[in-house]
Amino acid sequence: MSQTDSRTTPFDTLLVANRGEIACRVMRTARAMGLRTVAVYSDADANARHVREADEAVRLGPAAARESYLKVEAVVEAAKRTGAGAIHPGYGFLSENGAFVQALDAAGITFVGPPASAIAAMGDKSAAKARMANAGVPLVPGYHGGDQDDALLKSEADKIGYPVLLKASAGGGGKGMRVVESGEQFQAALDGCRRESQAAFGDTRMLIEKYLTQPRHVEVQVFCDSHGNGVYLFERDCSVQRRHQKVLEEAPAPGMSAELRREMGEAAVRAAKEIGYVGAGTVEFLLDKDGSFYFMEMNTRLQVEHPVTEMITGQDLVEWQLRVAMGEALPLRQEALTITGHSFEARLYAEDPEQDFLPATGKLERFAMDLKGAGLDPERVRLDSGVETGDVVSMHYDPMLAKLIVHGDDREQALSTLNRALAALDVQGVVTNRAFLQRLATHPAFRNVELDTRFIEKNEATLFAPKQYSIEEYAGAALIGLNQLARECESDSPWDRHDGFRLNAPHTIRISLCDPAHVQDEENVVVVEGTRETDADPWHLTIGSETLTARLQHLEGDAVAVTLNGHRRRLQARRDGNVVVMVDPRGETRLFWRRIDAIDHGHHEAESTLTAPMHGTVVALLVEAGQKVEKGMPLMVMEAMKMEHTMTAPADGHVESFHFNAGDTVGQGDVLLEFAPVE
């Protein structure tokens, strides 16, 4: 073993100060190296997968990250109590917290990452720009100064010229970051960025950069040891993003010449050595159409997308991290590193792309991927996950469930494997972006490498085309919604029935069904008729010119059997507010359900209230009770899974009252406020 410095020493027990997918991934390599693993957890994660897989687990505190995963003293104490000689921070949480590294140094515990001085150098984005200029790394024009006066920031943005990018000086991962298209939008964007930055990093300082309209996001993986060695493990293209967070990544970046790859790689190593870096880091660049590249930021940790680099180099980057932390020299020199094939990573999020990517919560009824059944090579497909069937996805943390990573001999083969693997991924019980990932991966522009950071925005019309539903899906949703009404009855009395029951007479119910993302567009009407005296009697459903005889049977849990004209199929069914969710092996269907017959008052009530689209916390009330507002005007801000979401007025009118205050926790479907539309 190489000589160690004051920060590096061998260890046999590793504490992973994180959760979910990255905690499981780090522990996998640690176990392979013969290390004992320790997990930490909050109350919300007491039964989480990373806790189950560790050799030992220590509770940190309540669900809120600031009271558990972000508590430096609690994590240090957990390491001392379990005899952990080192801590791997994963990404997020304390991974780029210099004070945490200093606390570990004081406690004699090895930090698997760079020294605190390197984190500080890159953690302050403004100071980092100055250091990079000294190292000869190209920079994007912008303002990185310490004066944070609102008027000065606005003036600097005006000088740079719109659009500009507002970015949290202390942040990363898309938090506290917004594109500002005009001076009129600047103050509102600045206020929102500061709120997000304060919540995520405890810091409200901002920097401003010229927003390049068609750049690619290309980042370089670097590695340095404590012996002065530094290498780059090539680059990744991370241009497909939404809200500045990556969705699809690939390595190597397509269309890169050997010369450009070398120039960017060497610039990245210069950046790392400028700040005395040790360990794994990523230097992120904006690559313009003319081949010019500009330093954006350095992430002083392991990246979410590191597996694509592992796939093309054949190296385990977590093993490299652990060996460097033990004081060893880098396993390979630059000339020994090569690229083999092509790799993609798709991030699976618990979110609804059809509802502006709103975070989703719930129980995973099924989470699996049948590689053999799909004819996929397990050596070419990797699923890095922090969840299993039966786990509960909460509102407290990032919505990423897993990463699907594939490898091929070339980009075309890798992309084909990605599409087949996404189709083989079976996730039920929680809304995810799986279908959206498939649309991205099969999009002609993506296949043709027409990439830039606004890819999703530019191709919105084709990526979010309205879904076409079948007669069976409309009929099933009508039955499930109607059955839920019947089950909500207060008693067995016919006077309490909500499902249109009429004594000794047929009854008719009219139900409107439509895509939840297009509630205001055309609707499909299902006419329900029946003389049902018992629950076993059939319904008669008319959809357009077709009439079906229908029955619904409850099975275990959320499972139901829907029988249409004698054809029976089993599915998982539930209602999220006014949305009926149906899941079977073919996929997930969501339909907005509303009664439109004479006894229905739902539409009127919907106009006079505003409900929470997801579980979360109220951040700010933007208007006062009694205030007149216009359609689309921001009314309040919610936060869920570390992202802000603004609730807007559904029509012209005025806010009668708020049901929650800033800081309150709300559940999906909770009525947030009373709203009176203009008559």
From TrEMBL:
One of its GO terms (molecular function) is ATP binding. InterPro entries: ATP-grasp, BC-like_N, Biotin_carboxylase_complex, Biotin_carboxylation_dom, Biotin_COase_C, Biotin_lipoyl, CPAse_ATP-bd, MCC_alpha_BT. Residues 129-326 form the ATP-grasp domain. Residues 10-461 form the Biotin carboxylation domain. Its cofactor is biotin. Keywords: ATP-binding, Biotin, Ligase, Nucleotide-binding, Transit peptide. Residues 603-676 form the Lipoyl-binding domain. Pfam families: Biotin_carb_C, Biotin_carb_N, Biotin_lipoyl, BT_MCC_alpha, CPSase_L_D2. The keyword Heme does not apply. Signal peptide: none annotated. It catalyses: N(6)-biotinyl-L-lysyl-[protein] + hydrogencarbonate + ATP = N(6)-carboxybiotinyl-L-lysyl-[protein] + ADP + phosphate + H(+). It comes from the Bacteria. Acetyl-CoA carboxylase is a heterohexamer of biotin carboxyl carrier protein, biotin carboxylase and the two subunits of carboxyl transferase in a 2:2 complex. This is Biotin carboxylase. It comes from Billgrantia kenyensis.
